[in-house]
Specification:
With 319 residues, the chain is α/β, with parallel strands linked by helices. It is 40% helix and 18% strand. The termini are far apart.
């Protein structure tokens, strides 16, 4: 049983699904209804193991490459975006493509192309190997230099007179990214940036909500899969403020020993974690004798993205 000191659980808000994730998951569901099983999905549609398993049970098949997909099949591109070379490879195989790239990621792709066309060398602030970074880099591979940290920003160098610009992955730490940009601006005063911040509203809002919550809690549980960048950033925000935080895929990963000395526990979830996982964690606390569970609201979100145009057109044609 949980330690007796735990008296309350506070739920951060906003938390969980963002508009881009909702759009991507619904896209796969609607594609299955339209085309039947199987519908192929390149990479994980979103970075959450529960979502992926649920869609697999419904008939989605997740692949690493479009070369694995039978010619003429339907494929959905994930919310993280893909490089132009992936679109070309899909077209060469005659695939029916539905692009579920988050519109906020598409905005970054557009910025990368425009900066490259204008002759800029582009500093992409992000994490190596992340699918979003790979997709963005593919828009202008000869022009993009990846910077992952403040240390990288201090060391990166460019030829004298080079036109520089920076863009960012959408799921980064707001505070760390600001520090990296500050270093780049100090070292390269003429560097240009995007017209508006690239870090998405949902990532920013969830980090801000956690910051508001931290003054009230002794421990933070972040619900999200371990390959979810935005979920890991929520752990980082808590850790930077001196509050112990753990990333859990679901309630089964909670360790009762974490609750030693904890009076108030906080719970949040990453932008790709469905709300039933939060419900499961709340049920875990109730089963351990902690019934005082309440919302700690910070902001309200009402952002909605339309479904991909390819899907909407196909549905109209089939009606």
């Amino acid at each position: 049983m949980a330690r007796a000191l735990v008296k309350r659980v506070l739920l951060a808000s906003p938390r969980g699904y963002c508009a881009g994730v909702e759009r991507a998951v619904e896209t796969v569901e609607r594609a299955l209804a339209l085309y039947g099983s199987p519908v192929y999905v390149r990479k994980q549609i979103v970075h959450n193991s529960h979502v992926v398993r649920d869609l697999e049970e419904r008939g989605a098949i997740f692949v690493d490459s479009v070369e694995e997909i039978p010619e003429g099949s339907a494929v959905v591109f994930s919310a993280h975006g893909v490089a132009p070379a992936v679109h070309a490879a899909a077209a060469a195989r005659g695939l029916i493509t539905i692009d579920a790239t988050c519109p906020l990621v598409t905005k970054v792709h557009t910025q990368a192309r425009r900066f490259a066309e204008d002759g800029h060398t582009i500093v992409l602030i992000g994490h190596a190997g992340h699918e979003e970074v790979e997709g963005t880099t593919g828009e202008a591979p000869a022009a993009i230099v990846l910077v992952e940290s403040i240390g990288d920003a201090e060391l990166v160098s460019f030829p004298a007179g080079a036109k520089l610009a920076y863009i960012t992955q959408t799921t980064l730490s707001v505070d760390e990214t600001r520090e990296i940009v500050d270093v780049l601006r100090r070292r390269f005063p003429a560097i240009e940036g995007p017209p508006t911040e690239d870090i998405c509203y949902a990532t920013s809002n969830r980090q801000w909500a956690v910051k508001e919550l931290l003054a009230e809690v002794d421990l933070l549980l972040v619900i999200g899969s371990h390959n979810s960048s935005n979920s890991q950033r929520l752990v980082d925000v808590a850790s930077a403020a001196g509050v112990t935080a753990y990333l859990v895929d679901d309630a089964s990963e909670i360790d009762e020993a974490w609750l030693d000395g904890v009076t108030v526990a906080g719970v949040t979830s990453g932008a790709s974690a469905p709300e039933p996982l939060v419900d499961g964690v709340c049920d875990w606390f109730r089963a351990h004798g902690i019934g005082d569970i309440s919302e700690f609201s910070s902001a309200y979100e009402d952002v909605v993205f339309r479904l991909p145009v390819e899907l909407r057109r196909a549905e109209r044609s089939a009606a």
